[in-house]
Amino acid sequence: MIDGPGIYQILHEGSGKRYVGQAKNIARRWGGHRRHLERGEHTSSHLQRAWVKYGAESFSFHVLETCELNDLDAREQFYIDERAEFNVLKLARSPLGVKRSQETKDRIAHALKGKPKSAEHRARLSAANMGKVQSAEMRAKKSATQKGVPHSAEHRAKLTAANKARAGYRHTPEAIAKIKAARCK
Question: N or C, fewer C-beta in 10 Å, the chain?
């Protein structure tokens, strides 16, 4: 197996259908494909279904050509255009043309939503945003999207509890001066 850059195919021997890809390290990439296919997690749903239906022994891996790193995209596109039935994406290195089902969109949104962040991650996010001020236009847009959106009973209860906890809180004279100065601008 080649450790360098090039173009490869995963061929279904029975039908002649193939998946074409590029890699900086072909041997490592083939290992990644096998792992994903064996776990049922491959990005090409067509290839994954065929792998499950016909079994691993029905597929072979071939290096189509080795090439320089800066030629990978053009050479992969050549082979995709020639014939690559298992490729979901028809443009090399591009997600253009992918149609995701609503179920897939919902799964992606759910996976990205509400993940707990470590203290270190929150500190990095805070540092990255330090000193950045949103434009008045952006603040107005955000405000407009929130107007008329009713809060859930649970959220209202949390707000009430937070306000009751702060009932005895008073701003320092310096904080009051800053608030007044900000309002006068």
Answer: C
Percentages of the chain per state (helix, strand, coil), in multiples of 5: 55, 10, 35
Which amino acid makes up residue 97?
A: G
> What number of other Cβ atoms are within 10 A of residue 44's Cβ?
21
pTM: 0.52
Is residue 167 scored above 80 in pLDDT? no
Pairing, β 18-23 against β 59-66: unpaired
- For 6-82, CATH gives 3.40.1440.10
Q: How far is CA 58 from CA 16, 54, 61, 129, 168, in A?
A: 10, 6, 11, 52, 73
Name the region of 97 (left: φ>0; alpha: ψ -120 to 50; beta: rest).
Answer: left
Strand, coil or helix: 114: coil
